[in-house]
Amino acid sequence: MRKIIRATFLLAALAGAFSCSHHKLPQFQTLAFDTVVGTPAVGCDVKYRFTSIANADKSEVLTGIERSNLEYFYGFESYDGPSTEAARESLGWIRNELAEQERIYREMKLQPTAGERTVHVESEVNVADSLLNYAIYRATYLGGAHGMEVSEYHTYSLTDGFELGYKELFSAEKLEELQIALRKKISEKYESEGGSLSEAGFFSEPIPLTDNFKLTARGVTFHYNPYEIGCYALGSVAVEFSWEELAPYRK
Q1: What's the CA gap between 50 and 86, in Å, rounded?
Q2: For residue 6, what are the contacts with CB-CB under 8 A and spacing of at least 6?
Q3: Which of 218, 202, 225, 84 is nearest to 153 (CA)?
Q4: In this predicted model, what pLDDT tens digit does every residue of 96-137 receive, in sequence order?
Q5: Which of 26, 88, 107, 148 is deepest in the core (most CB within 10 A)?
Q6: What's the rounded Cα separation, in Å, for the pair 101 and 104?
Q7: Beta strand pairing status for 148-157 and 117-128?
Q8: Alpha-carbon 196 to chain mean position
Q9: How far apart are CA 10 and CA 154, in angstroms?
């Protein structure tokens, strides 16, 4: 769930109409953390590559963005500690999950699920004019039939630190039309001749807009992870719009 989604922004900002030259520019560093937790029977390989704002303490805006990124990256509901210690804080949940698994296996006299358990998370960032785009990629397997790979995208204003959702980018009166356009693009890609989206693995209609989008110089890509709008076999669904295509829906 997005932590900050209210802002007064024009879509023109996304096309480079603003300059953040008068704001504190972020400087980045990658904090790497590798370890193995659990037991020989139920262990987990953990790898974190967190892209941190090295000068976050120089600006209230950057401090707020850094804290939000930490919470998203490590799955915290709230975190006020230093980024250098966040990885260790997050290991508690993994240890508890593995301990519960081992307890169940022991009580039921079962062998642990085959396959190496992993929690691999990495992030990348880019700055375009007054916007900071932050991406998080997760590959997780903690037992069961299969693992999960998900991607998360967050876009912040370097002017005030607010995170942008689709309601900040597009006119409220045009959201239904944009949703129809999104559904059309998905249909063109996934519906075979005489088939339907449900037959392709989608859960239901209408397909909702999502705040999980990636901004590029070419436009916006709405991203849906497995199980969000379809079955696991469907995989991730990416729907791309160019800036020209989005022009009718902008504020």
Answers
A1: 10
A2: 162, 168
A3: 225
A4: 989 998 899 889 988 887 778 999 999 999 998 899 999 999
A5: 26
A6: 5
A7: unpaired
A8: 28
A9: 17
- Pair 49, 32: CB distance under 8 Å: yes
Question: What residue ranges of the chain have pLDDT lower than 70?
Answer: 1-23, 193-194
What global pTM score does this model have? 0.87
Gap between the Cα atoms of 42 and 95, Å rounded: 10
Q: How far apart are CA 135 and CA 4, in angstroms?
A: 16
Cα–Cα distance list, 192 to 2, 142, 182, 186, 199 (Å): 35, 35, 17, 11, 9
The reported pLDDT for the residue numbered 34 is 96
CA distance 161 to 129: 14
Q: What's the alpha-carbon Rg for the chain, to the nearest Å?
A: 20
**The two three-digit tokens of residue 186, written as one number:** 């998905």
